[in-house]
Amino acid sequence: MNRRAILPYVFAFSGIVLLLLAFSRMRHLVLPEGSSSTIGPFWKKGDPYCKWVFSHYEQSPYESQWFSEIESAQSSICNAVSQPEHANASNIIVARTLELMSLSKSVQWDNYDTGNATSFHSSDTFMSRMHYNRTCYNSKTEKFHLAKGKGVQLIEPLWGMLRDPFDRWCGDKALKMENHPGASGQSKAHIMPQGYAPYTYTLTDTVPTDEELQTQEWRTHGLPPWHSSLRPSSDPRVGTAYRPPQNIHLDLGSSYFGIWGADAGAASGQWFYDTYHARGKPFDRFIAVEVETLNDTKAFTQIPDDLVGVYTLMNVGLSMDEGDKLNTIDMIKRVVKPEDFFVFKLDIDSAPIEEPILKSLLEDDQEEGGASGLVDELMFEHHVNYEPMNAPWHNPKGVGDLHRSFNCFRDLRKKGIRAHSWP
């Protein structure tokens, strides 16, 4: 057979190899057929592809209590948090969060539902809830439609000063807890990231009642089915093709990866690496943005080996100026797709720059491509005016108070963003 006659076979074989490689990558993004889990639907061969989408946010009774008290309590927030009722609730919430975050480093989640099923924990009544609906794809209409399936995942309540009440900021009034990781001023013990937040889901048409939720199976860690999704599209060569998601982190106000000055707690890169990347679902892109001049050699010496080529350092300041190539929201839209898992940290210690980003996320329209629909998890230090944070933050007037901050975090959560108050 001559070379020209062989070429069609070569091209055909190459195409098959590429399809197999794509399918191999996709297999890690869907629930495996034949899994022994009893609480969720799987995508089996021949079934329509289904994904989960955000439905609504539900405040816990304890969070609702704080919303009724915060306007008057914010003038003396340390006194309010130290009251016996709130001190006891803070102990329960932070102890539970520390317990959930204390997993051995050997525990990994490279697929869905890796945590063992367990029962509802009594402490979780203090936690607020993110609700999700299941939708399935119709290849004929090329649209998703609502299907049977309701999911719930917990998130720490908005309470107190929106920081760890066992940290040092309240001085003599700071709460005390045995085995607390330390009052460094940078404590993250109040934050419940997605991979460590208990969740449950069922194939029902109705939102479970509190009583039903307490009898369902829960998982305390791992990837919930709404972590990320595939994007279906019509392809004349193969029918319906699916774009696999990426895991992306943007750290706006990153400093160095491992340490800033003499304070390792002030550098966030290592925390995000340990909390997300090292758990078996690594970031495909890790973008660090810092306006203060960094030493390139020092910066890249601090990053782990498996971030080389993934980690991008932008040692410039981004903006919110329309038409600027460094516009923050425009960059997010260029980098992140709706099916990706995107973790955004915003902490640049400058309210005049942070506020336009916050305003955009709160006011945009997700149906029209707003960037808020791309953000899965947000870590944000909201610099507003209240004691005891005015001194360290050097805040200008007019940026609002703690009551406003409560409303902003609640409204971000209502848009489907797991918004946490960053220290």
Largest sheet: 6 strands, parallel
What's the gyration radius in Å? Answer: 23 Å
Order of H and E elements: HEHHHEEEEHEEEEHEHEHEHEHHE
- Contiguous low-pLDDT stretches (5 residues minimum) are 1-42
What do the pLDDT scores average to?
88
DSSP strand content: 15-25%
Q: Helix- and strand-based class?
A: alpha/beta
Shape: globular
> Could you give the order of strands across the largest sheet?
11-10-9-12-13-14
Query: Would you count the extended β strands for me?
Result: 14
Helical region count? 11
Distance between the termini: 70 Å
In which range does the helix fraction lie?
Answer: 25-40%
What keyword list fits this structure?
disordered N terminus; 423 residues; 4-stranded antiparallel beta sheet; alpha/beta; 6-stranded parallel beta sheet; globular; single chain; 11 helices
